[in-house]
Amino acid sequence: MILVMVRNTIFLLLGIMLGIRLTDFVGYLKLWRSNDLRASEKAALLKYPVASEEHLATWLEREVRILCLVLTMPSSHATKAALVNRTWGARCNKLIFLSSRTDPHLNILQINISESRKNLYAKVRSGMAYVHEHHLNEYDWFLKADDDTYIAMENLRLFLYPFDPESSVYFGCRFKAFISQGYMSGGGGYVLSRDALRRLNLFALNSSTICKLKGEAEDVQIGHCLQHVGVVAGDTRDSQGHHRFLPVSPFTVFPIIQTDSWLESYFFHKPNRSDCCSASAISFHYVKDFEFAFFEFFLYYLRVFGLHRTPRALPSRLGFRQMNERLQHWSQQVTDNKG
């Protein structure tokens, strides 16, 4: 009798445990199916013809979070910095100016260093250290630009969307000099992934061997620092090989890049002199004050009657294996610009 009671008790306990496990498993299946359906519904909302490009751009602003760091100085606060603040900078998820003096009209991180070209690298180091400490997990990508740079933020988000911000990569206008993988032009703007920012601060900036305290130009030195901690210089050209990041004003490269231009010899990938720029261009440099209004008018206000533009769906996001394959491909690229 006692044996029967013990046996029944054991079976009862086993039944209860099995029931709990089955309930958990069914609950997991329901959750998985629910999440899968939500993901499918989310994807459906983001594909043509259901979603307009305006809808996609608004969605991307939440999905591809970009913190913008802009170099400026007190003499430019009321001019160039103010123009950035009310044009493309307003489209950043967060905008921080780096300057030696604060300003009530601008969100400035004050860097206590004299304003000179030789100190740009120190300003950028300080800015990168600050955003790493205070904002690393709040944003996906970290853009550095000058106050005479113009960024088409919507095109930048569209370009970045397929890539994992936890991959060790940075993007910009890739120059070929000084470093084996090249470096990104500071004036054209460059953008670091979250992991690139993490590596820069945890490993590079903490080592004077890997990342010198002083020395070369800001963009060259940051390129050195990033390469030494395994951050890959990505390729930002479009499918036709046209450049998206331009370290000059568009008026410099239209209608063609001049044969004696320094620009032609600097590119990591040889440009097409007669068709230099991508239709999905992201940045221009040496933008004059009046040109900010020029860009805003032609990019965001002017609509040409009768000119039909086919809406585009978002590109697919790269999986872990695809992202690693892309990084490996970029890391093995060699310059084709022998000029």
What does this structure look like?
With 339 residues, the chain is an alpha/beta fold. About 8% of the residues have low confidence. The chain is globular, with a radius of gyration of 25 Å. Strand 7 and strand 8 form a beta hairpin. The longest helix has 44 residues. Helices cover 42% and strands 12% of the residues. The strands form three sheets. The protein has a seven-stranded mixed sheet with strand order 3-2-1-4-9-6-10, sandwiched between helices. It has a two-stranded antiparallel ribbon with strand order 5-11.
- What can be said about the biggest beta sheet? 7 strands, mixed
Give start-end ranges of low-pLDDT stretches: 23-50
Number of helices: 11
Radius of gyration: 25 Å
Number of strands: 11
Q: SSE string, helix = H, strand = E? A: HHEHEEHEEHEEEEHHEHHEHH
What is the typical, i.e. mean, pLDDT? 84
**Terminal residue distance:** 96 Å
Could you estimate the helical fraction of the residues in percent? 40-55%
Shape: globular
Which features does this protein show?
11 strands, about 350 residues, seven-stranded mixed sheet, alpha/beta, two-stranded antiparallel ribbon
Short description:
It contains eleven helices and eleven strands. It has 339 residues and is of the alpha/beta class.
List the helices and strands and how they pair.
Elements lengths: L1 H44 L7 H11 L2 E6 L5 H10 L7 E6 L8 E3 L9 H16 L5 E6 L3 E2 L1 H8 L8 E4 L1 E2 L7 E2 L5 E4 H11 L13 H11 L3 E2 L16 H4 L8 H5 L16 E2 L4 H12 L19 H12 L8
Parallel strand pairs: 1-2, 1-4, 2-3, 6-10
Antiparallel strand pairs: 4-9, 5-11, 6-9, 7-8
